[in-house]
Every structure is written in C-alpha cells, then in structure tokens.
C-alpha cells in the first residue's frame, strides 16, 4: 500500500513532464531570443552576416523617449477596450437570443455565425474592402440612395472613419466566438434555480443579474480576458486597411507599429523592444482579470 501510494503521484507527473518540456521549449526559446534581440542593434547589416552590436537598454530608451510610441499605445488601448466591450455586449445579446430561439432557427443562426467565424481573415478583408470602396463600394451606394452625400466618400482617409470601419470588421469577426461560448455557458444554468427565483417574485432583469450572471461568471471572465488579449494584438485587419488607403502614421496600432519598425524600417532591435513592451502592456491590462479568475477559483 505504501509503495503504491508513493508511486501514484509519479505517473501523472511523468505524463505531464514531456508536454511541459515541449511547451517550455516552444514558448521559452522565442521569448528568450526576443529579449536578446531587444538588447542588440540588429538591422539590415546584421541580416547579411555582420555581428550584432550589444546596446543594452539603448533600444528601450530610444523607444520610451519617442512620443509617437505613447500616441500609438493610447490609441491601441482605446481601440482594444472599445472593441472588447462591443464584442462582449453584442456576443452576450446574441447568446441570450439563441437561448430563446426555436431549434431550427437556432441552428440556422449558429451556422451563419460559424461561417463568419471560420472565414479566413484575408478573404473576409477582401469583401470588406469592396463594401467600403470609394468608387464602387456598396456602402457608399446604399447611403447615397438613402439621401446621404456619400458618393466617392473615402472611409479610410480619415482616422476616425478608418477606425469605425476597423471596429465593424473586428467586432464582426469576434462576436461568433463570444456568442458560442456564452450560449454554452447559459445552457448550464440550472433551470430550477431560475424558476425558483421567478416564483419568489424576481423579474426577468433581476433573474438575469442575480441568478444567470453569477452562474456564468467564470466563463464571462475568461471571455473578457481572451477578447482583451486578441483586440490588443490586432494586426491583419489594420494592416490590410492601411494598404487599401489608410494613412499609416495616423492609424498605427502597436502591431502595425512594430511591423513598421522591423520589416519596413529594418530596425529589428527596436522592434523587438517594442514587442517586449507590448507583452508587458498585455500583462498589465489582463492582470486584474487573472486576479479575479484566481479569486473565483478560491471561492
């Protein structure tokens, strides 16, 4: 009995260790390489064989003293929270609607959401570019027919309308995940508890706030956490819209800013430092939600 009790914990540990080692190697080496690169001067010359020069925290110093970085950071944070909030609100609303739909209608709605979610980003961006095209866009045509002065309107030229279009696209692509996840959580809420609250006189809003939301709170926290991380790292949508006519300097987020420093500017050391800055920013913004999740687990 004693030998079995001693041996049992070693089996799960032995099964987990190989996967943990592979995960640490897959994630740890790129992160370590990124840290080392951020401490070096690594440009086009280094790509052709010249040894990189060690500059220590010089890249970070140049980065934080650049006023353009802080404008991009504030823009990124604002874009992240606006999109995460809209995605969460719309996704929760869609999930509540699906919970009240008939089976046939719900399946049709889920198929539509699944197709929107599964569509490749580049393919989806091609369609959205056509919809908001200055000359041949369907959006301009519909708004002009409705009486507005939108003939030849350039949606991507002004930063505000650029981010309006970007928000529509990002939210459209993100809502299906939130809706599916929250709908799955809603199906696990005990019906007898909701019925008991209704018998006690609780209205629909009271049942939703005091019964449903607490029951799905762990899922809500995970969804919000993931959505903030994803919206903070948006790149493809912004980059594609910039290529379609947006002004890069006025519409850069952290992802495209890092791309501009590294790929376009050839300053890979500073780009790596900016990537590390983005990692720290992600940790800072998501820390409160992680803390709430841990507290929820303890409770």
TrEMBL record:
<feature type="transmembrane region" description="Helical">
    <location>
        <begin position="207"/>
        <end position="230"/>
    </location>
</feature>
<dbReference type="Pfam" id="PF00528">
    <property type="entry name" value="BPD_transp_1"/>
</dbReference>
<dbReference type="InterPro" id="IPR050809">
    <property type="entry name" value="UgpAE/MalFG_permease"/>
</dbReference>
<feature type="transmembrane region" description="Helical">
    <location>
        <begin position="268"/>
        <end position="290"/>
    </location>
</feature>
<keyword id="KW-0762">Sugar transport</keyword>
<comment type="similarity">
    <text>Belongs to the binding-protein-dependent transport system permease family.</text>
</comment>
<keyword id="KW-0472">Membrane</keyword>
<dbReference type="GO" id="GO:0005886">
    <property type="term" value="C:plasma membrane"/>
</dbReference>
<feature type="transmembrane region" description="Helical">
    <location>
        <begin position="68"/>
        <end position="99"/>
    </location>
</feature>
<dbReference type="InterPro" id="IPR000515">
    <property type="entry name" value="MetI-like"/>
</dbReference>
<feature type="transmembrane region" description="Helical">
    <location>
        <begin position="111"/>
        <end position="131"/>
    </location>
</feature>
<keyword id="KW-0813">Transport</keyword>
<dbReference type="GO" id="GO:0055085">
    <property type="term" value="P:transmembrane transport"/>
</dbReference>
<keyword id="KW-1003">Cell membrane</keyword>
<dbReference type="InterPro" id="IPR035906">
    <property type="entry name" value="MetI-like_sf"/>
</dbReference>
<keyword id="KW-0812">Transmembrane</keyword>
<feature type="transmembrane region" description="Helical">
    <location>
        <begin position="160"/>
        <end position="186"/>
    </location>
</feature>
<protein>
    <submittedName>
        <fullName>Putative sugar transporter integral membrane protein</fullName>
    </submittedName>
</protein>
<keyword id="KW-1133">Transmembrane helix</keyword>
């Amino acid at each position: 009995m004693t030998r079995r009790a001693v041996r049992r914990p070693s089996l799960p540990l032995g099964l987990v260790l190989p996967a943990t080692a592979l995960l640490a190697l897959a994630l740890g080496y790129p992160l370590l390489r990124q840290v080392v690169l951020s401490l070096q001067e690594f440009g086009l010359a280094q790509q052709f064989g010249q040894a990189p020069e060690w500059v220590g925290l010089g890249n970070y110093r140049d980065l934080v003293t650049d006023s353009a970085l802080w404008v991009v950071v504030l823009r990124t944070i604002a874009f992240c929270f606006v999109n995460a909030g809209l995605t969460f609100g719309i996704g929760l609303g869609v999930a509540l609607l699906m919970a009240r739909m008939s089976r046939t209608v719900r399946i049709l709605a889920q198929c539509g959401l699944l197709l929107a979610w599964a569509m490749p980003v580049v393919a989806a961006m091609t369609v959205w570019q056509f919809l908001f095209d200055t000359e041949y866009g369907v959006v301009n045509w519909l708004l002009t027919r409705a009486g507005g002065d939108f003939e030849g309107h350039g949606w991507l030229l002004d930063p505000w309308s650029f981010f309006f279009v970007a928000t529509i696209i990002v939210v459209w692509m993100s809502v299906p995940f939130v809706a599916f996840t929250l709908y799955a959580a809603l199906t696990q809420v005990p019906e007898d508890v909701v019925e008991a609250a209704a018998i006690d006189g609780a209205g629909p809003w009271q049942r939703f706030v005091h019964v449903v939301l607490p029951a799905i709170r762990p899922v809500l926290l995970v969804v919000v956490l993931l959505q903030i991380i994803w919206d903070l790292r948006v790149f493809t949508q912004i980059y594609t819209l910039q290529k379609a006519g947006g002004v890069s300097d006025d519409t850069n987020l952290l992802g495209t800013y890092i791309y501009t420093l590294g790929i376009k500017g050839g300053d890979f050391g500073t780009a790596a430092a900016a990537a590390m800055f983005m990692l720290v920013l992600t940790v800072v913004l998501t820390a409160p939600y992680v803390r709430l999740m841990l507290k929820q687990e303890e409770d």
